[in-house]
């Protein structure tokens, strides 16, 4: 029988979690579901857990954040266990790599460089160090290394930031807004004359330029859209409440009535 003392030790810390994952992945005595998983099947859960962390932070639910951070940590443990099984890396090597990276990227804290820098200068220095790291990995093109698995709006901003560093950027928001108007016009035309695939391409172009406008305005488009989603959810919920007070549901209403209620909710929010 295996020794379960560490697994049942509430103060076992990180070694306990690593041992739990090792046991779950044991091909003979582990959990059949866990044994069947691979990097591709677990990756969507990793992304989901990261979003749940962000959601708990946005709601300032610190008790829930504790649990969500644990779930996200478990994803790291899961991937490192699979990496260890395949001989790619281990949890210890991942920790070492990250620690080495943080020391190398902060010479003004852990080295002999001065800490007397502005935040902008520190950001510029950080990007120079990252560029050197990409060069060491033979990532020589400007856009190399921008993760393809990022949310599309976030990746668009990162791609545009990279291009801007080498001078490929509009000088001000006026040019960006003009481009938005141009792309919107092309989308209207595409809707009437082009195929669904071509229309989708034009829509993507419009979103890409809108992401560029967000970058010029120093707005995170993902954050802005999440806020818009939350606002829509809140206001539509108020519309449903107003209908319920009349003994009705949205299915019993029509667009004109719901639109009027929406305007009332919007006005009430603005007058607070």
From TrEMBL:
Residues 37-110, 176-235 form the NTP pyrophosphohydrolase MazG-like domain. Its EC number is 3.6.1.9. GO terms for molecular function: nucleoside triphosphate diphosphatase activity. The keyword Calcium does not apply. Keywords: Hydrolase. NCBIfam families: mazG, PRK09562.1. This is Nucleoside triphosphate pyrophosphohydrolase. It comes from Yoonia phaeophyticola. The lineage of its organism: Bacteria, Pseudomonadati, Pseudomonadota, Alphaproteobacteria, Rhodobacterales.
